[in-house]
Design a protein that fits this description.
Elements lengths: L6 E4 L14 H13 L5 H6 L5 E4 L10 E6 L5 E5 L4 E4 L4 E4 L10 E6 L5 E5 L2 E6 L2 E5 L10 E6 L5 E5 L2 E5 L4 E4 L18 E6 L5 E5 L4 E4 L4 E4 L10 E6 L5 E5 L4 E4 L4 E4 L10 E6 L5 E5 L4 E4 L4 E4 L31 E6 L5 E5 L2 E6 L2 E5 L10
Antiparallel strand pairs: 1-2, 3-4, 4-5, 5-6, 7-8, 8-9, 9-10, 11-12, 12-13, 13-14, 15-16, 16-17, 17-18, 19-20, 20-21, 21-22, 23-24, 24-25, 25-26, 27-28, 28-29, 29-30
């Protein structure tokens, strides 16, 4: 096959060739025309996720998926990779197995993964909550008590109860179905949301057993089992659009916001960190504490960064992250960075496995940390050697 040949492929196909094609002038002109004429996409379009238009893709390694949103390792050591359009992918150390709507999975985009006490796997999707047990999927939707079919977060508390953060609030599983768990509404100055303040992007249980809920525009709510305490910008929070919540081993609560940076709550007051303090970006989508006690922050458009308590260290394109492999949700067929999106590497997930390997789910696929460099793990590997 002529290696200079450009091929049209749908977004769910990948070539195993590593040759690079020469892009003809007419294709460059067509791409710029698509960018200049592409309409601004709406929140509803963004919520639906990227469509699957026919787009031009140069030959590239066969990614596990174009966008990895979630990484999880179960008690048996199997990995589960949640994608943004290909459903769930399981890796047992030898084989990658894809499970999608065709196999009974509840949705296409995966936004949360956990395992319950009985070993069943639970997934937050754009089509509800899916439970996978003994090779069978059980799907929970609005007909089973969910406030909305679009689920953004998933949590299992210390009592074993499963919680789902949806597009219209929080629900908890009672063993049979989901039951709404109403959150308080608060007034904030200069209100703004990516979607609606009812969206709950992040949930967390702290060392004292308090439950924390992060909303899209009305800050965070802490529930002590009897009453709520709400925190917003007026109380010192970095931003009212909360994307994630995580506690560290010292008991401090870290809250990532969409545009305001990160807040650290010590039980009394907030300390905020922004790009001026060393963050890659003020749009923080995930917070993770590794086994050494270092904190990691993922961003939209600027890779990830590691915080050792004093200094932020950036991990982006220079360390091996692939830049912007995601098609723009507007449907133009152009890549996100060159259409409506920010220019940079989008890191959605960070996870450390039983062997201590740190994994990153990104807009360019799946990556793992090797020393101070990030290695792209495709369908062909390279997978880390088991310990």
């Amino acid at each position: 096959m002529n290696t200079m040949e450009n091929r049209v492929q749908s977004t769910n196909l990948r070539s195993k060739s590593t040759s690079i094609g020469v892009v003809p002038l007419w294709l460059v002109i067509a791409c710029f025309a698509a960018v200049s004429s592409a309409p601004r996409f709406t929140a509803a379009q963004e919520l639906a996720g990227p469509p699957a238009p026919q787009i031009w893709i140069l030959d590239q390694p066969p990614q596990i998926s174009a966008y990895i949103r979630e990484v999880f390792q179960d008690r048996d050591g199997d990995f589960w990779f949640g994608t943004n359009g290909d459903g769930i992918c399981r890796y047992d150390g030898k084989t990658l197995t894809y499970l999608s709507v065709k196999e009974g999975f509840g949705g296409s985009a995966v936004r949360g993964i956990l395992q319950d006490g009985g070993g069943a796997m639970w997934f937050a999707t754009d089509g509800g909550v899916s439970r996978y047990e003994s090779g069978i999927f059980t799907n929970f939707t609005v007909a089973d008590g969910l406030s909305d079919h679009s689920v953004w977060s998933l949590m299992r508390d210390r009592s074993g109860t499963i919680w789902a953060g949806t597009h219209r609030g929080v629900c908890r599983f009672d063993g049979t179905s989901f039951v709404p768990f109403p959150l308080p509404r608060v007034e904030v100055e200069n209100p703004s949301s990516r979607f609606t303040p009812k969206v709950v992007f992040g949930m967390f249980e702290d060392q004292a057993g308090n439950l924390w809920f992060g909303t899209d525009g009305e800050g965070v709510h802490r529930y002590d089992g009897e009453s709520f305490t709400s925190f917003a910008v007026k109380d010192g929070l970095a931003g009212n659009q909360v994307r994630c919540i995580q506690g560290d081993r010292r008991g401090k609560i870290w809250i990532g916001t969409n545009g305001g940076g990160v807040s650290c709550y010590d039980g009394t007051s907030f300390r905020n960190f922004t790009k001026k303090d060393g963050l890659n970006n003020d749009r923080v989508y995930e917070i993770f504490e590794d086994q050494t006690g270092h904190l990691w922050f993922s961003t939209l458009g600027a890779g990830a960064c590691r915080y050792d308590g004093t200094t932020f260290t950036a991990f982006g394109a220079d360390q091996g992250l692939t830049i912007n492999e995601l098609p723009c949700p507007c449907g133009s067929g152009s890549m996100y960075a060159y259409c409506h999106g920010p220019n940079g590497a989008h890191v959605q997930e960070m996870f450390q496995d039983k062997d201590g390997v740190l994994w990153f789910g990104c807009s360019g696929g799946l990556f793992r940390l090797d020393g101070e460099k990030l290695v792209n793990v495709t369908r062909d590997g390279p997978w880390p050697e088991p310990s």
